[in-house]
Structures are given as C-alpha cells and as structure tokens.
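Q: What structure does this chain adopt?
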Amino acid sequence: MQRLNEHMSSPFFINNDMLRLKDFITEKKELPYDKNPKIGWWKDKAKEHGHHVVYHGTHKKNLPNILKHGINHKDPDTGMISVTHDPHTAHGYAAMSGSGGEKNFRKVGKKAVHTPHEDRVVLKIHLPKDHPIDGHLRGNVGDKHDNLKSKEKYEKHKKADGQDHEYYQTTELRTSKDIHPKHIVGYMHRVKKS
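A:
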C-alpha cells in the first residue's frame, strides 16, 4: 500500500485518479509560440547541439496522432517530409493542412479552403544531425536555396541587423525518413481560440 501511495504522488495521479498517458503528453508538450527564434547558421547549430531545431506545421486534429506516432505522412509527389527553420513558415504551410496537405490544396485551385489560424499547430522538432536530409535542398527556389548554402550570405544578413526568422522564411529541409515522436519537443499555437 505504501508503494501505491508513493506512485499516487507522481505526476500521473491527480486526486487519486490516473491521467491517461495521452493527456499527460499533450499537456506537457505545449510551448509558447517562438516568434523570433535565435537560429544562427543552421549547419553550425547542428554540429554544436547534435540536432537541427526545425518546425513543421499541421492541422490541430493531427496532433494526437503525431505525438504518438511521429511525423510519417510524406508528400505523395516527393516521398519526403518537409520541415523549416522558421516557425512562421511552418504556420503558413499549416494553412494547407485542412485540405490534406500541399498537393491536395494546390490541386483544387480556387476552391481550396485555408485552415483557420486557430486550427493550425506548429511542431518544434530536434532533428538529429545524422537524420537524412536532401542534400540538394530541393523545394528551395532561387535565393532561398542560396540562403541554405551560403554562410557568408547569412553573416551579411546578420551584420545588417536582420532577424534569423526573416533570413530562413520560406526555406525548407526535406527528409525521406519518418520523424520519431521522441524528436518532437512540443507544439505551439500562434493563434488560440478564445
């Protein structure tokens, strides 16, 4: 009985009732929205910390499944999962999540329905530096491709007092490998329903 009482004081027990693990995980993973993350030169950060800090936008209805199983829904055209260094870009891509993703969103054209801001969720991920990333940086067009290739360009941006999230906006990294739930640090809402 004493052993049971010790366990009942753990965070899984409230008023002698055991929380469902899903509720505990969801409660613990919500983070404040990171409006201006300090990203630095992305390749250096991965070397220094052993992981990339990246974001992935999705519909809030997908959150319980992602927290349990990770991110495993790949783009049907590329066979890849896209992430970004910028939470605002991830929030923007989540606009297409209610249509079933970017491909379906673009396919319906003018009939596309944007996911309301309050239904979008941005996942914060610590992607291990050895997690396979598309070395060609496909999905990044024009100067965005150059932004991920040139540390000199990044340093010039910083000297001009540029913000990191502005430098990395609309850039993406793609991976062909699922993102395990243990790499998901948490989730954020830019706009919450009142």
